[in-house]
Design a protein that fits this description.
Layout (H helix, E strand, L loop, with lengths): L10 H4 L2 H22 L8 H13 L4 H18 L2 H20 L9 H21 L7 H12 L3 H20 L1 H23 L4 E7 L3 H11 L4 E11 L2 E16 H14 L4 E6 L6 H7 L2
Antiparallel strand pairs: 1-3, 1-4, 2-3
Helix pairs in contact: 2-5, 2-6, 3-4, 3-8, 4-5, 4-7, 6-9, 7-8, 8-9
């Protein structure tokens, strides 16, 4: 049977020191969140972790068991849709998490509900983020949703939101509205922290500038901030009350990091207060000068 390079199981990558360290670090953070903050205080998260803790609350099943079983469909879908390497990373991460939940003793850290909600979310987010950076996962809800949306015509975000809303409604009904609200805080804290861990402070943002002083703006962005630009030919004007007044212009687009965007916007606004600017988050970028400079 012919096999492409992408279909070959790369054990060297999966078992590399960096990958294993990130997986272990992520698993330890997740276990601290689950056993040190969430379970002792009957707090939940969203996703499969939230469902697993909910099953633990109702039936007193060790949380590692439903967490592993619920993620098995994700591993299978990942194998079919993404590849062997991804499925192997995911399975190894889940095995590490299951073992750590069984053998690692973690005392209850605090009973303060606000601290539990915030720091439980922080450690969950760190755990998810580090494991994703290693190539694995410990919560497969998003990929399951991606697969399911083709069957029901709903977007991935709608399916995830529907599942998590159901989880939080169950929490509100059985554990009280206060626990549900704190669990929502945990969930959104985990999302934000995992985003920072995965994307880093160098998350890329597209900055678009429309200005009558386009030559000055282009020179400043390229020469002072050392950023490559793309220029589109556009048209300024067409405003309410003066629809017929318009002029040709250059639309300047550059890609910057999260930390750079505010500095560049401030510099542009100081030199041209009438410049129109807007930013867009970029999920992925590759190729060109940007990749050579940033390593993305």
């Amino acid at each position: 049977m012919n096999r492409t390079i992408s279909e070959t199981l790369d054990l060297r990558s999966i078992l590399s020191l960096k990958s294993l360290i990130l997986k272990l670090l992520g698993v330890i953070c997740a276990v601290v969140a689950i056993k040190g903050f969430m379970i002792p205080n009957h707090f939940l998260d969203g996703g499969l972790l939230g469902i697993s803790i909910l099953l633990h609350e109702f039936y007193h099943i060790d949380v590692w068991l439903p967490l592993l079983l619920l993620n098995i469909p994700f591993v299978i879908i990942g194998y079919k849709k993404i590849g062997k390497n991804f499925a192997a990373h995911a399975l190894l991460s889940l095995i590490f998490l299951g073992i750590a939940l069984i053998i690692l003793p973690v005392p209850e850290v605090t009973k303060d509900h606000f601290l539990v909600a915030v720091f439980g979310g922080v450690f969950v987010g760190l755990g998810i983020g580090f494991v994703i950076r290693s190539g694995g996962v410990i919560d497969g809800l998003e990929v399951i949703a991606e697969y399911t949306n083709k069957q029901f015509g709903l977007s991935t975000s709608e399916i995830i939101m529907a599942i998590n809303t159901t989880i939080f409604l169950i929490i509100a009904f059985f554990l009280g509205i206060e626990k549900a609200m704190y669990s929502i805080v945990t969930f959104f804290t985990a999302i934000k922290i995992s985003d920072y861990v995965v994307d880093g402070f160098e998350k890329l943002i597209s900055l678009t500038i429309i200005s009558p002083n386009s030559e000055m703006i282009k020179s400043m962005v390229v020469n002072e901030f050392d950023k490559p630009i793309t220029v589109y030919k556009g048209e300024r004007g067409n405003l309410p009350g003066s629809f017929g007044i318009k002029a040709d212009c250059d639309i300047i687009v550059t890609v910057v990091t999260r930390l750079e965007v505010h500095k560049i916007k401030k510099a542009i606004a100081e030199r041209d207060p009438k410049a129109f600017m807007f930013v867009q988050n970029i999920r992925e970028v590759g190729g060109g000068i940007l990749s050579k400079k940033s390593g993305h």
